[in-house]
Design goal:
mainly alpha; 2 domains; 3-stranded antiparallel beta sheet; two-stranded antiparallel sheet; 15 helices; 7 strands; 8% strand; formylglycine-generating oxidase activity; SUMF_dom; CTDL_fold; Sulfatase-modifying factor enzyme-like domain-containing protein; Sulfatase_Mod_Factor_Kinase
Length: 392
């Protein structure tokens, strides 16, 4: 009992300086050397004392503490998740922490939260964000359980580590580039940008290493299909044939330039430093996995028109043809560090899904800030530059 009380006192003292830059190393040292009980006591103090808004403001530090923890226990996190009257902001934050800790013992608590929601398809706003995140965490902690989405607007890609794709209904809007009415067909868009973890499976496949994917597709078959794609699309994929010939080893050719950079290479950070050709090659790989070796376009990059509609289309204004929202989350408020990673306010990319306040109504994350995203289309008529969206 005396030891537990001492640990609690240490946790209380350190929580009181959470967020102060000069105490960061001390906090990391403490969390790296305490046992599971110490971690749990620290999290209990942190969630009980520090406002959610402050925790959000120092989300990078919070994630660092979880990543550096020597041992973990999730009792305090689960208690905070299920406490009566818990706000959606707190529940989302705790779910993100549980996702980072990745302890299967927490699955039952997350299932209790999920079952507390009305699943008649009427969930909107913050409740929908919490429900969607609870489903995502359950699928991570208990892979054997397959959760039916409440509105059937999501599918999970088993070839991409269960990545969630969100249904975006088709519609007509005024395209910002030319002020003209354009129509976009229904499409599914990945909830998050592609992560380093997901992309490394692709690189491992190209290297001939074992990957946790049930497929008969071989690297040789894929390479042949990729070369055929480049040859058959000299206009749409201008320059791709020459690019593929520039280096024999595709794993090295397509690998991220920042895979060894600690600022950008954590598993849940978005992959950066990959070419447009590499991004299209990744989509072809997913398509071939899905179609059992056939070159079918199940997966591709979005066009600018599709991206803009997904990021800001006013789908709540049925029957009206309007311009898109100012930001993914709405016309107001102006961007803040709660909405996105932008203008070097963090100094590195952040793990995907870190900014629920910046998500679209359907639940697409990081559509503004964090990383630039390759588009399918060329930016100019001469096809010298490829379009980018998103920003960083």
């Amino acid at each position: 009992l005396a030891g537990k009380q001492h640990c609690r006192e240490q946790a209380r003292q350190l929580v009181s300086v959470f967020g102060r830059n000069w105490w960061k190393e001390t906090l990391v040292f403490f969390i790296a050397h305490c046992d599971a009980r110490g971690f749990d006591l620290f999290m209990a103090e942190l969630l009980g004392v520090i406002p959610v808004a402050t925790l959000r403001e120092h989300n990078t530090l919070l994630r660092t503490l979880i990543d550096e923890a020597g041992e973990t226990e999730t009792g305090a996190l689960c208690q905070a998740l299920l406490q009566p009257g818990a706000s959606s902001d707190l529940q989302l934050l705790v779910l993100e922490c549980l996702k980072a800790v990745n302890d299967p013992e927490a699955a039952d608590s997350v299932k209790l939260l999920r079952h507390s929601f009305d699943q008649d398809g009427s969930l909107t706003g913050e409740a929908k964000k919490v429900y969607d995140m609870s489903v995502e965490v359950i699928r991570l902690l208990d892979p054997d359980e397959r959760v039916a989405d409440h509105d059937h607007g999501v599918f999970y890609n088993k070839y991409e580590q269960d990545a969630a794709y969100i249904r975006i209904p088709g519609g007509t809007y005024i395209y910002s580039e030319n002020g003209q009415e354009v129509t976009v067909e229904e499409l599914y868009v990945a909830r998050y940008p592609v992560t380093n973890r997901q992309y490394r499976s692709f690189i491992a496949f190209l290297s001939g290493k074992s990957v946790d994917i049930n497929t008969s597709l071989t690297a040789k078959e894929y390479r042949q299909a990729l070369r055929s794609f480049a040859a058959d699309n000299p206009d749409d994929a201008k320059g791709m044939q020459d690019y593929l010939q520039s280096k024999k080893d595709l794993a090295k050719l397509f690998g991220s330039e920042y895979d060894d950079d600690r600022k950008f290479n954590k598993d849940d950070q978005p992959v950066v430093g990959v070419s447009w050709y590499a991004a299209r090659a990744y989509c072809l790989w997913l398509s071939m996995l899905e179609s059992k070796g056939n070159e079918k376009g199940h997966y591709r990059l979005p066009t600018e028109m599709e991206w803009e509609w997904a990021a800001g289309g006013r789908r709540d204004k049925s029957g009206e043809v309007l311009e898109v929202r100012e930001y993914p989350w709405g016309d107001k408020p102006e961007p803040t560090p709660k909405h996105a990673n932008y203008a070097q306010n963090v100094g590195a990319t952040t793990p995907v899904g870190r900014y629920p306040d910046g998500a679209t109504p359907e639940g697409l994350y990081d559509m503004a800030g964090n990383v630039w995203e390759w588009m399918e289309n060329w930016y100019d008529d001469d096809k010298d530059f490829v379009a980018l969206r998103g920003g960083s």
